[in-house]
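Suppose a colleague, Dr. K., hands you the sequence of a protein chain of 171 amino acids and asks what its three-dimensional shape might be. Before reaching for any lab equipment, you can write down a predicted structure in token form. Begin with the sequence itself:
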Amino acid sequence: MRTALVCAVLMALSLDSMAQGAPAAQVEVRFEHPEKFRDASLDSHGYERGADAYVMKTLTQYLQKLGQRYLQPGQQLVIDIRDIDLAGRFEPWHSQAYDVRYMREITWPTIDLSYTLSQPGKPDQQAQERVSDKMYLSRPGRVTSSSDRLYAEKAMLNDWFRQRFAVHPAS
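The predicted structure, expressed as tokens, is then:
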């Protein structure tokens, strides 16, 4: 009886240590001069440049979630966001809807960023990119009644992240 108990405890400890052996993937998101971003605020008052805390927090959390989904254990990704232009525009001439973001074909979301992907035993991968989605209004399955104010940016980032970092099986 004691031998079986000792074996069970040792097996549980070894499984736990094996699970901890490969560190989880990590994503760090940094914003370079967010006060100068073209259009990264969901607050229409003042129509000023810059990013608001909600947008930065939401995009950071979403990119970290994508890292958990698509990155391999041990990979570390640092994303430096240099500019954001959210989908749509505020149109102040609409007197009863001054705080509504109007989505038009010419107001697609764009994020300028650079990234560094580090992984054990391999050289770092670095790149600068402009991520945009000119077809954001015609996406199949686009949810028009979504209450998520950043749905277009999240869909765009999901596509980009999956294309860049997901493991694709050999064809």
